[in-house]
Amino acid sequence: MWLQVLITPIRELYNNFLKYRKQVNYKLSHNSQVCYLQKVLNDAFDNELRRIYIENGVFLKALYVYTPEEELPVYIGTEYIYSDEDLIGGQDDFIVNVPIDLKPSSTIALEGILSDMKGLINEYKLASKTYSITWIE
Do 90 and 107 lie in a common domain? Predict the structure, then answer.
């Protein structure tokens, strides 16, 4: 009986260690690849139906217009000229699509789930990548 009492704290520490080991192994087995990032998000937020998916962002191609000093003819045709914000600042490298069914009705819960989702994405994504979260039907 007294031996059981002495072993109980060690048993609890060992169980905590096993839980921590499982969490670390999960984190180490996933990285910033799209398939793994989708799996992590679906494991955390949509474990049953697994409807969260990631798609590439839309990149606008810059059109170079020659300067007057180069004296070259400019043939633009149907090309569009974008501002610097359109070409650089406003583009996301990937878009996380989340079903509208997972969107909470209250703003506090919505901020909480978005904060959790952003924290999870930021943990796995590459530092230079940008993203946006969109709610889909």
Answer: yes
Please list the rounded mean pLDDT of every run of 10 residues in the chain (137 residues).
92 98 97 96 95 87 65 62 59 92 94 96 94 94
Instruction: State both tokens at 18.
Output: 């096993």
Query: What angle (nearest 5°) sits at the alpha carbon of residue 50, between those of residues 49 and 51?
Result: 95
Torsion sign over Cα 89, 91, 92, 93: negative
Domain count, the chain: 2
Taking the CA atoms of residue 19, residue 23, residue 28 and residue 33 in that order, the dihedral angle to the nearest 10 degrees is 150
- How distant, in Å, are the alpha carbons of 53, 72, 116, 117, 121 from that of 112? 20, 55, 6, 9, 14
Q: What is the DSSP string of 37-58?
A: HHHHHHHHH-TTT---EEEEPP
Residue 2 lies in domain: 1-30
